[in-house]
Structure to design on (549 residues):
């Protein structure tokens, strides 16, 4: 029997072990190319089989020749779950159905080999028990196949910041990180109240009592206590979907997506990025910003043209709190900021990692001919994109809160509510008095812009990759006027609605405080953003793409 110009034989279900099944298939040359007369070019050898496995596109790491040699030898060595996938592809001649059949039989044969080995060890005297494979691996300098029953004896993994960071998001409860944010933020709220800066005013110019209290700060209250936890929840739920449902639905068509090892390797490939994020958040956001802007200003006792907020207000109102108290509270506040920005950027990196892992399905040529596989690709891709869109909306809103709060602090508004309301009145001509700027320098402008830029960059990169995958996975477009074409049109519109909302929010961020009446644009954008988070029909429209394909 031939499949793709290679010799194919279905696996024999005679109850043999992996060794029996492998020797039979290797001797017959199952999966080897045939000559012009239809005869196989000969049996498999360790060199030929190792080359065939290493040439599989999805197998990026290849396989060691010594590992394949162990399969040919008369020993009790088994085969790992990863290598079962590659061997099944070779014996299955690259055909999805045949590969699945061989993979199931190879796994069953390996289980029988492991059971036979355990039974043999139980019946042998204790002084004749073989040395565990995990122990032998410390003596042999070449890589070996680890039997499945020795999985419990594993060497201790080295610390990996990438895996540790990913584990913070993946868990049964998506509230783990938000609870950490709320708990730390609650301590900060309590400290601000004890220090007396929870609601405090000062007079930057004559006749103006400006409210700069902690409880009035949008960036510390609405942004970090509401928007950020929602971002973390959506990111954690999307990660759980991909690891538990999305990858499983694509496992049958792309062996590299099965199990957790493929995902772990993908996360580890971004190890340098995780360390860079860690250093930036805790060196730049925490130490440099705190020491360079707040600690130095508090020690000098002169704010100069620095923006006065709920911490630096003690320099204008020394009777409220002492400088040592302000130094301690500010250090905790920016350590808290470093932590939550670390969570945020890790979330963005995980979103990109999910998309990168998902785009790997395009390495499977079976997707171009199997419509069921295409539906699974579309369903997973649209779910991922919907989750990334929600995270992006919350990320831009968080950056907008930071910039809006800083813009208010350097304005001549008495409170942030009065400032925004007066801006609307001035735009409609109800009030002639227009607000103006104070002579202060807002350092959060740069931080908020960086936050917005990175968020939008991740969104558009992910959007382009997923849209490209779905476009390549789509079958021929249905004729115009048919039921399928009428279903597909609104689904495609939703993709561009997402782009429109992101562009609108980014433009609103850039225009905050740039003209009188910006608050009208801000209010409209916030309404659109909140509404987009509750697009209940969005998932149904996305599914129409798969139904029409």
């Amino acid at each position: 029997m031939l499949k793709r110009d290679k010799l194919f034989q279905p696996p024999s279900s005679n109850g043999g072990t992996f060794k029996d099944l492998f020797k039979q298939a290797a001797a017959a040359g199952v999966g080897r190319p045939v000559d012009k007369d239809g005869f196989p070019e000969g049996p498999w050898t360790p060199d030929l089989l190792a080359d065939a496995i290493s040439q599989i596109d999805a197998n990026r790491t290849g396989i060691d020749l010594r590992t394949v040699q162990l399969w040919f030898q008369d020993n009790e060595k088994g085969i790992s779950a990863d290598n079962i996938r590659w061997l099944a592809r070779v014996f299955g001649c690259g055909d999805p159905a045949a590969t699945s059949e061989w993979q199931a039989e190879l796994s069953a044969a390996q289980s029988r080999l492991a059971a036979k080995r355990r039974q043999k060890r139980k019946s042998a005297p204790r002084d004749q028990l073989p040395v565990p494979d995990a122990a032998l691996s410390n003596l042999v300098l070449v890589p070996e196949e680890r039997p499945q029953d020795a999985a419990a004896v594993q060497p201790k993994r080295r610390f990996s910041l990438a895996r540790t960071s990913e584990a913070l998001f993946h868990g049964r409860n998506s509230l783990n990180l938000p609870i950490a944010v709320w708990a730390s933020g609650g301590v900060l709220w309590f400290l601000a109240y004890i220090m007396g800066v929870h609601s405090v005013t000062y007079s930057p110019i004559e006749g103006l009592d400006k409210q700069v209290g902690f409880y009035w700060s949008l960036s510390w209250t609405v942004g970090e206590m509401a928007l950020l936890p929602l971002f973390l929840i959506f990111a954690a739920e999307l990660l759980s979907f991909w690891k538990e449902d999305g990858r499983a639905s694509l496992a049958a068509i792309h062996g590299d997506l099965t199990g957790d090892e493929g995902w772990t390797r993908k996360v580890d490939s971004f190890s340098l990025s995780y360390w860079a994020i860690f250093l930036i958040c805790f060196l730049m956001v925490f130490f440099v910003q705190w020491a360079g802007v707040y600690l130095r200003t508090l020690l000098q006792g002169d704010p100069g043209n620095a923006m006065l907020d709920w911490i630096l207000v003690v320099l204008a109102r020394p009777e409220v709190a002492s400088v040592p108290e302000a130094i301690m509270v500010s250090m905790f506040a920016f350590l808290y900021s470093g932590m939550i920005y670390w969570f945020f950027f890790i979330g963005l990196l995980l979103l990109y990692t999910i998309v990168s892992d998902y785009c790997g399905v395009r390495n499977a040529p079976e997707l171009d001919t199997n419509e069921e596989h295409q539906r699974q690709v579309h369903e997973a891709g649209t779910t991922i994109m919907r989750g990334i869109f929600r995270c992006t909306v919350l990320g831009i809103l968080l950056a907008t809160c930071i910039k809006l709060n800083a813009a208010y602090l350097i304005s001549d508004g008495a409170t942030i509510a009065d400032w925004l309301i007066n801006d609307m009145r001035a735009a409609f001509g109800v009030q002639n008095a227009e607000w103006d700027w104070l002579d202060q320098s807002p350092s959060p402008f740069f931080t908020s812009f960086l936050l917005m830029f990175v968020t939008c960059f991740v969104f558009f990169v992910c959007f382009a990759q997923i849209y490209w995958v779905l476009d390549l996975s789509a079958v021929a477009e249905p004729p115009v006027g048919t039921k399928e074409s009428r279903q597909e049109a609104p689904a495609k519109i939703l993709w561009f609605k997402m782009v429109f909302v992101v562009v609108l929010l980014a433009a609103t961020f850039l225009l905050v405080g740039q003209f009188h009446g910006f608050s009208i644009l801000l209010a409209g954008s916030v309404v659109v953003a909140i509404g987009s988070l509750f697009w209940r029909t969005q998932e149904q429209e996305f599914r129409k793409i798969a139904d029409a394909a």
